[in-house]
Each structure stands twice: as structure tokens, then as C-alpha cells.
TrEMBL record, chains A, B, C, D:
InterPro entries per the UniProt record, alphabetical: AGPR, AGPR_dimerisation_dom, AGPR_type-1, NAD(P)-bd_dom_sf, Semialdehyde_DH_NAD-bd
Native organism: Saccharopolyspora phatthalungensis
Gene behind this protein: argC
Active site as annotated: C155
Protein name stated in the entry: N-acetyl-gamma-glutamyl-phosphate reductase
Entry keywords, A to Z: Amino-acid biosynthesis, Arginine biosynthesis, Cytoplasm, Membrane, NADP, Oxidoreductase, Transmembrane, Transmembrane helix
Length: 365, 365, 365, 365
């Protein structure tokens, strides 16, 4: 495909000033097929002031109007905007031939009513919902390959989906009670707008529980899980911010339809995602032995943010509380990469017919 | 009571080199009724090297033998030792008239078999179990008042108990499924022995899930909850270490026997623990309004470690996910104070007939 | 003195919403001679929302006007206000008989011109400067005892002064070149106003150097050092924020007028401040041996924030680079306690003739 | 050069279990010219347990003996070993035709006596010192291009050198007094061996000053600066660990031979290193304006670890304290990348005639 030649792609990033927009620019700078990156910003603001880590990259902000003027020459447009903007602006870019990957929630619900129920506003482009594909690449790859419009999943949602899909797809989960999911996110997940509750002196050494009455990624999960299993699935979704800037550490506690031991379940996950990078490059099963050399219990046998932050990987581990019959899944991702910008590029790669791992092969620090 | 005169009490701290032992010494130094503190250590080691925060206190380590020789003149002996030591040594101090507060697990189970099932060793002094009182001061005050031997609860356990007691005591909790409890502890909870998994460069920016197959405080909770409610209660207890040195941030998700709104439940907690310090000095209900001045959702309405670390307080808040019928309790404590040394002193105060808050009135930093 | 009876003192805290005001309230709540605390705030705002750690204390905000109306019945008024406010309002409280301790910079310079040179505004009450005493309690105790108006030192300044005073007072320092001082402060030192640069996701894992062209505590130090030594002393003062909420870790590198070894200098500091709490209760010299049991170099022989955060102590250690003839002083304090609210109470205690350590005896966590 | 074809290079990493060895493996995995990576370890130990971030990479440890057997087929051998090992083993690999990049201190001093003076042991291969090139790529590029043996600089040293070279090379620095350098390093810089002082609960929220009597990178700097300027240069070098896992935040305070303003000096640095990536790809000058849009002083105008951690970049900024005539340089690097593994690969690239930036182009997170 000629337009995918080395450094040939032209890409817009609507909403380039936040953490997700910045991370997308960083990853696109290292993408071998991307040649032009146009991030947008509203006000003046220099790029290097906003994203000091990208000093030297030569990137500069354009306005949305300037980007729209060039729409006809863009291959891909990413939206890193608050809910409600992409659904108004995506159509224009699609018409002019660009692929759109929306990192906001605007196209995550197939039904406009579901969107409105969760986000509290009428959907502006319900006609586009039908062609939007929910971008969990590992599970929707074929549909993404044919799509022009990808709805990138929420950072919590994709972590939960990758962690639970093997069990749900096999019908192993007892969905009689809500699936219990607890996720701790880095503070970058709360955005760049200064708030007292998110100042360093406030969060440092603490955890900040929020949205206990129900986080908006709960219904997003329920919608996807229903599509995956063909049955209604309730999710008890719990969120907080931890004392770290990046990463989602998620644990799901499930009752299975019948008992399976730890090794058996690890085997199931290996079959589903492949061992090493053989099948799914970005999803890795952590199956470290529970006992160390001296037959002592080991401390670090479950996945850990250290293994993924800075990368597009999702690490998954699990254990089983035999006494109470509860299976526990631990899944970790970088909320800004696999949870946002990395997945978005992975989806772009698939949609454009490129090698899915292009620009995304870095391991975690 | 003459022996409780200002600075008259003589106190031993068996196991004075760890974080709990150090914290106990720190609090005892500020206790108006305590005059002599004798912490024990095995090797040489200077006190100020081990506990640099207590530089200037004049405290020095003695050996256990030296402490035992003075047993007849001790008013109280605290055990901050690994499981298995207090059950061998406590008897001697009790015989000579000292009160014993054991911060290890040795006297937490009324039945020696239950102890053995959880801790994997035969109990050495089963005859003492009958008179040991489980030291959740707020719920066992009268029994502690008459006891010579207090089994101080585990740090996780006491946080969970204080958080759930009002609902359990009123029979509001549907115990048909295990109670789901997730708790994140500071790294001081893992002790002072150097381990790679707990080095700063490893834990910083991560969370360390552990004991997913079942933490030992689970059975401790089940034992107490059964005593409290008169019925079997299963607990699904999940633990991890967070990127902070001190504190337990605990969340319990429950189904109630019938629906209660947030305000109604906050009222129940206020009735149970009192408002302000009126009834229970150390348990405070956080009932901040969910909306701020501009009718915006507020970010910090649930309890937070900032409110309790450095103090003997437990802060409790809650919310209700009406859509899924799940009530969520958030309880936070300082794992080394309310979760260990502070409770131990509170129990000492009660057992000796002193004002319960003596030496424990500091607010969190 | 009858008015200093148990819980008899009435105290105002002008500017009670910031970190310093909150910390002052926290310490005053534990002060045995203080009975009434009146913190002021401008807007509505509940006290427990602003200072969740003081939940249950019963404190409530009043307006400055309400406080002023009660001025005649106040024993002490603390100002925790931005520069420029205390110099306008302090006079009124002094007239009505209250002592004033100003934690802002308004009364730190004896000369109104010096104040204007550093803070860029004309001094509003130059007539009060003559009676203001600079509140380094350890060095100005006798003057504070007789004063009505104490200018509490800056947090950086007091840490530097306590760290260097023994050498300066003995004329050991070669003042031919500026004294080189580097200090890292917690983020609470930057105040509560939300700023992007101080958000958790920004500061976490980094350091934030600032005011390299000259911090305002530099001239404050030069003024005091000149008064102490009788000679001009230049200070090269360097500041940054570290990845912690509280505490100042300060290092000064000096050339002495002649060589002194580590032990000799430690002896000098012991003589100056006393060993243990014998002479100066709140200043402790850390003189741990440099080699451990196995003759290995020890890692933690210099003072460390862990030893002081949460307390009114200043820990001081030192070393000597013999090859280059440079003496290095390390001094650590809690920026909100010894660096602000604790010193302010210490000064109040002295000015009112109370035991200087009242309400301040807690050791660091 | 045929052997440098895509994925053709075979590389050994002696000492693959520490943080530096792991980081080297991580970067080599992303290097387009490297096909085989052989990290060594002493004991059993699985690679994924030691470096969970490299799960899925397929790397496995070999023993040093196994590596030595393959020496004839290796293109490059990196030493990530404690001081004293590379000087014994490097010769063998050189003889068999491999390039050697030593990340330890063994070949950093041209004179064996200087090595012995600093590291306390006799040099085992003094004959190799003559051909070893000190690997600050930016300043020694031509010599590295012709060398077989590169002595990779210490992490502190390279940060200081890049920060000061423009001034020193131009003879702007008044070397009459020791150059004052203060550097804060992440805890990964202290290695993986568990030590109590470096446990999370100890370092979190503190700083750990060490080696105040003189750090070993001081003489390393003095040796290089003397070579650079042709004159003796004394360095007052101060080190500590901060509450972060990675990165060096370094500040140097200098007196110049005559006064230069901030802008003038920034211009000098731009000339020396180039703007953007034009001249030196990995050294970037941060020249943000000191005032923001509303003419307010800006908080974040100096380099910050956020800008470099995870990358091979060094960011440099500066300011001038005109009142005291002191110029201040701030330089930041990732201690494990530009300070170790990244520089080592950069040197490998140069020595093998590859594009210097291969495998190193990632921006900071």
C-alpha cells in the first residue's frame, strides 16, 4: 500500500494538550510509518512547555480549524477530547477519507440511548454508531480491519476485558452475581486540569476512592460483556487513584461455574492468548511458580505495574481461593498506552493493514 | 489508683526493633502515665540507629532475659513478636502480675485448633486462650476492662471490623455470599526484613498484590464476625501493598438484606459510633456532601489515608450503587497505630482503668 | 499566671485554610494550655472538608471580622497569611493586648527598605519592626520572652540557621565566599492553590528546581547571619521541591577558617545544643558511627526526613571532605512544624512564660 | 558492513541480573541491528522473574563460562559488573575480536594508580588502559569510533560532564574554587541487593544523603575535566538518593571568569550542542521563557526528570543569580539509560559505525 510507506502517513491528534494526546504524539513520533503529526490546541501554548518530554521533536500545535482545512490529506485522525466533541467532528474527517480513532466515549455504545443514559447528553451522530467498532484489538480484530471508525475503549474497560475475556468467552463465569472488579489508576488518569484533590501534597501517600456509586466504565463493560457472551452480565466496578502517575492495577474476583485450579486456569489463558508473543503480542500471562528456590512462598508472583508501565502490554495473572471458591484475576496495563494511546495506534495499524505492533514494541522500563 | 500516677507505669515491649515495636515506644513516650519503657532486642544495635525518629528519647534496648528478670515490677508487657513467641512467654509475665497485650496472632483465636489451622503450629498455651480477650476496644470494652490478657487484632482485621460492625450488628448484611473486602496496606506492614520485592525501586509506582489464595486475617475476621452476629460469615479478603509506607485503605462491598440509601446508612453509623468524639473517640464517620458549592460532584468525599495516618483514628465513609444494589464501605486507619500500637495502648488504658484516650489524642498530620 | 491555666488560652489563627494554618490548628488542639481556637477563612467552606485530618475536632472557621471583634479577649493571634496582610492587621490585635506571632515574612526584616527590596512592596507598619523579634527560639529566647510580636522565620531559613549557627557563632566559617546551601522542600511548602506544575502526576518521581536566580529566604538568612556574626555573610541559597509532601532536607557546604575533623565538629555541636534533650529540646545532633558491626560503611549516618517529619525536631549531622577541605552540614526539619507552626507555638510558649515544649513533644512517625 | 545487517549482531551482557543489565537487555531488544542477546547470571533464576518487564522477550540467562565459550562469535560484550571484574575478563573477549563496553569503573582512569587510589585495588590489566576510551560520546566521538574498548562513564559523571562541558571547554569557569555539584539519584542507582536503608518504607518520603566525605565519581570528573581543560579542576561532588526509582537531577553552581546573563549562556549551549536534534541528538537545551502569558513567573522553566526518564536524553537548563554572581546549571538524565545502558549502546553504535541513534530514539514517558 503506497500511502503506508516509510514515514508517509499524515496524522491528526485532536486534543493534543492532555496526557493522552501527549502520549499519542510520543508514540507516533516513534512509528516508522508516520511522517506528519498535527496535534491541536486551543490557546497559544508552546508544545515543549506542555510536553517537556517531547522537547526536540519539532512538533507544534495547530488549531482545530487549521487541522480541518487539511482534512483531505489526513490518513488518520485521533480524538483525545472530552466526551461530546468527537461525535460532532468525526463525520467531517470520515467524509474526506480519513480513518478516525476516537479515544473518548462518544462511539463506545452501539445505542444512542445507552450513551445518553451514561453520559447525560443526546448523541449528535447516531448514524455513525452503526459503523463504529469497539476497539479491543485482540477481540475485534477482523471488524477493525474493515472499519473507518474505531471507538477506543476506556482505560479501565480494556484492562478488565483482556483480564476476563478467556473465562467469559468459555462460559466459565457464574454471572448470577455482579462481577466484582476493583481497579486502581494512576493520577494521570484524572487529567491535567489542576484540582486540589489531585495536588501532589494531597495524593502522595494516599489513595483516592471515587465514583463508588458507579463508574461510567461499568456500563461500557456490561455492554461489551453482553455482546461477548450473549447474556446480560452485571459488573460491580470500583475505582480509585493510587500514589503513582501511570498504570492500572486491576483485580477481578469471580465465581466460576465449576472449580478450576490455578494451573488449569493459567493453561486456559495461555491457550487463549498464546505463550510469549506467539499469538497475541501484547497480552502476556504471568505464570511464575508460587514457591521459590528454598520452597518459600514468593512475594511477587502476580502481575505488577513495573512489568507494563511504559509499554503496550497487558500482563495477566491469577489465583484461586479454594476455601471460598473464588477465582482472582490480576491484570495490569499502562493507562495511557494499552489503556489509550497504544491501543489507538494498534487499532490504526490494523485498520490500515500495517503490522499490528509497529511503533509499539517497547518493553516497560 | 496509685500505680497509675503520673509517669508511674513500667512497661516492657518484647520485640522492639520492628516497625510496630518502634511505634509502640514512640506512643508510650508521649503517654502521661508511663514512666519506664523497656524495649527488647536480640543483638547489639543501638536504639537510635534502629529508630532514628526516637533520637533523644534516652530509650535503650534490653534483652528478653533482662526484661524477664524485672517481670515482677512490670505493669504491662506488649509482645510485638512474630507468631509463636508470645504464646510461650506470656504466661510467665501474667503469673508475676503484669498485664499482657499481644500484638501477634497467638491469642486471637479462641480455639487452639483454629489457630493451628491458620498458623500451622500447635498452640503452646491453650489454657490461656480462654481468658484472652480480642482487643477491638470499641466492641469488647467491658471484657477488656476485666482482662489480664488482650489479643490485639490484626491491622487489616480491626479496620474491617470497625468498618462493618454497625451493619453486621444490626443484621443488615446479606451473608449469603462472602463479604468482599479489598485492603491496601503500606509497606511498613510487610516488616523490616529487607526483601527485593519491597525495595524502594521495586514498589515505588506499583502495587504488590499478595496472598490472593487467602490472607490469614480472613479467618480472624470470620471468627469475630461469627461471634458478633451469631452466624457463620464468610469473608473474601484481598490484600496488597501500595506505594506508601503507612496506612490501610479498605473497601468492603456488601449486599444488604434490604435497600438503604447513603444518608440512611450514614445515620446508622452516626448512631452506632456517635458524632464527633462524643461516643467513640477514635471512630469518625465521614459524611461530606457529594456536591460542592457550584453543584459539582466533589472528588474527595470518601475517607482518605491523609485523614488518619499518624493518629489512632479510624475514618469511615460509604456509598451505595443503587443500580446494582451494592453498598460500599470505605474505612481507613494507620496500620501501625489503630492497626497495632495505638489499639494496644487503648486496650492497656482500658485494662488498667485509665482514660481510654491517654497518649493517643494526636490528630493525623 | 492565671490566664495560662489548663485550657484557658484563647487563640486566633488568621488564614486557617492553608497547610500552615491547618497544622497550627492541629498542634493547638493538642496544647494543654489552649482552650479556644478560632481559625479564619474567607469563603464558606467547612473545616472538615478543608482539613479532613481534623474531623471531629469541632473547630469551625470564623471570618477575620468576627475574629477582630473578639480581639480584646484573645491571648495570641497567629498570622498564616500571604506576605502583606499581617503588617496591616497585626497592630490592631497588639493594641488590644494580644501577642502576635506572624508566620509570614512581614516582620522578618528589621529595616522596611530591606523588606521592600525583597518583597516588592512598601512596609505598612514600619513602626512595629523595631519591637518585632525574629523567632529562632533557640537563639533569640530571651528577646522573645519579652516581646509581644514575633516574626516567625521562613521554613528554609530556620533550618539553615539551626544547622549553621554553632559554626557561625564560633567564627569558624570562612565567609570569603557565599555559603553554599541546597534545600529540598516537600510540596506542601508550595501551598494549597492548585497549579499544574504541582499536580501529583507532574511532581511524582521528579524534582522541581525553582527560584535559582535567588530565593527570598536568602536575604532573610543574610540579615540574620550578619546579626549573629557581626559581619556581612553572603548566602548562595538553592531550593527545589522533592517527591514528598513534608519536610526540608538541607545541606550546607562550607569552608572553615581552619580544618576540623568530623568528630571535633560533632563535639562542637553537642556543646552548643546539648546532648539528648538536655539543653535544646528540639535540636538533636546525629552522631552515628560511620562503620557498622562488620566494619562496613553504613548507609544511613546522616539525618533523614524520617527522623523529624511529624515533629518539632531539627536533626543535624555533618561530615568533612578532607581532600577538598569542605565541611558539610545536613539539617532536616518538618517544614510545617519546626519550619512554621511548631516554631510559632514554641515562640508563643516562650512569650507567655509557659514550658517551651508544651504541645510539641511528639516524636516523628 | 555486512555483519551489522538487520538483526545480525551478537551481543553478550556480563552481569545481566542488576538494574543496568536489565535495562541494557531491554534497549538491545529494540535495537534493529541486534539479533542475539546473551545475558549472564550466576545462579539459577529465571529471566522473567528477575526482569518482569521483559516477560515474553524469550531471553534467558547463560553463565559467564557459556558466554566465554561463544566469545569468538560475539560482536560486542558489555560488562555490567561490580568494580574489579571487567579488568580481569575483558582481555579475553577483545582478543577474540569482540568490542567491549565496560559499564563499571575499571577502565575509566587512564592511570592504574588513580584507579587504585579511588577503588582500593591494584588494576589487573594496566596494559589495556591505554587503549580504553572514556565514553562520553558527545565529546569523544572520534576516539570511540576507532576504539575496541570503551569505558562507559559513571551515571553521575556523564550528567555533570554534559552539563558543564560548554562552559569548561570555553574556559568560562573560574576554577579557583572547587566546582560545586549536587546530584540526586533514583534508588535504582543503589543496585538490587536488599538493604534496610533502601527499603520502600524507609526511603519513601525522604532523601538519603551519602558519601558526603567524597563520592568516587568526584575523581572521575576531575580526571576528565583536567583532560578537557588542560588544567587541574577540583570538584565538590555531593550525592543523595531521592524518592524516585530512576533519574539523576543534578545542579552545578559555578563562578564564571566574567559575568554572562541567562540568555547569553543559553545561546552558548545552543551553539555547543545544537538546537533540537540538529547537532547532538541526545543533548537538549531547555530555554523556556521565565514569564508566562500573564507575565507571571513560571514554575517549571528548569529541566525536570519527567522530561528524560525512559529516554537517552540529557536536558540542560540554567540560570544566573546576578546578585551573588553565581551561574547555575541544571542537568537531568535517566541514570540507567543516558547514565548507563543507553550511553553504552550509543558508544557501541559509534564504535561499530552504525547510526548513533539506533535503538535509542524513544522519548521520555
Amino acid at each position: 500500500m503506497s500511502r503506508h510507506d516509510l514515514k508517509a502517513l499524515r496524522v491528526g491528534v485532536v486534543g493534543g494538550t492532555g496526557y493522552t494526546g501527549g502520549e499519542l504524539c510520543r508514540l507516533l513520533l516513534g512509528h516508522p510509518a508516520v511522517g506528519t503529526i498535527l496535534p491541536t490546541a486551543r490557546g497559544a501554548g508552546s508544545f515543549a512547555t506542555t510536553h517537556p518530554n517531547l522537547l526536540g521533536s519539532g512538533l507544534e500545535f495547530v488549531t482545530v480549524d487549521e487541522l480541518t482545512e487539511q482534512a483531505g490529506e489526513l490518513d488518520v485522525v485521533f480524538f483525545c477530547t472530552p466526551s461530546g466533541q468527537a461525535m460532532r467532528a468525526a463525520g467531517r474527517f470520515l467524509e474526506l477519507g480519513a480513518h478516525v480513532v476516537d479515544l473518548s466515549a462518544d462511539f463506545r455504545f452501539p445505542s444512542p440511548d445507552d450513551y445518553e443514559a451514561v453520559y447525560g447528553k443526546r448523541h449528535a451522530s447516531p448514524e455513525l454508531l452503526a459503523e463504529a467498532v469497539y476497539g479491543v484489538t485482540e477481540l475485534n480484530r477482523e471488524r477493525i480491519r474493515k472499519s473507518r471508525l474505531v471507538a477506543n475503549p476506556g482505560c479501565y474497560a480494556i484492562t478488565a476485558i483482556l483480564g476476563l475475556a478467556p473465562l467469559l468467552a468459555h462460559g466459565f463465569v457464574d454471572a448470577g452475581a455482579p462481577l466484582s472488579i476493583h481497579a486502581v489508576n494512576g493520577t494521570s488518569g484524572a487529567g491535567v486540569t489542576p484540582k486540589k484533590a489531585l495536588m501532589h501534597a494531597e495524593v502522595s501517600n494516599a489513595m483516592l476512592a471515587y465514583s463508588l456509586e458507579g463508574h461510567r466504565h461499568g456500563p461500557e463493560l456490561e455492554t461489551f460483556f453482553r455482546a461477548l457472551t450473549g447474556e446480560p452480565v452485571e459488573v460491580d466496578f470500583n475505582t480509585s487513584h493510587g500514589n503513582f502517575a501511570r498504570g492500572i492495577h486491576l483485580q477481578a474476583n469471580l465465581r466460576l461455574t465449576r472449580e478450576h485450579g490455578r494451573d488449569e486456569l493459567l493453561g486456559l489463558y495461555h491457550d487463549f492468548y498464546g505463550a510469549g508473543h506467539q499469538k497475541e503480542h501484547f497480552v502476556l500471562v504471568v505464570d511464575l511458580p508460587k514457591l521459590g528456590e528454598l520452597n518459600e512462598k514468593r512475594y511477587e508472583i502476580y502481575p505488577n505495574l513495573r512489568g507494563v508501565v511504559g509499554s503496550n502490554f497487558c500482563h495477566i495473572g491469577l489465583d484461586h481461593d479454594a476455601r471460598r471458591g473464588i477465582t482472582k484475576i490480576v491484570a495490569v496495563t499502562d493507562n495511557l498506552i494499552k489503556g489509550a494511546a497504544g491501543s489507538a495506534i494498534q487499532n490504526m495499524n490494523v485498520a490500515l493493514g500495517l503490522d499490528e505492533t509497529l511503533g509499539l514494541r517497547s518493553y516497560a522500563l
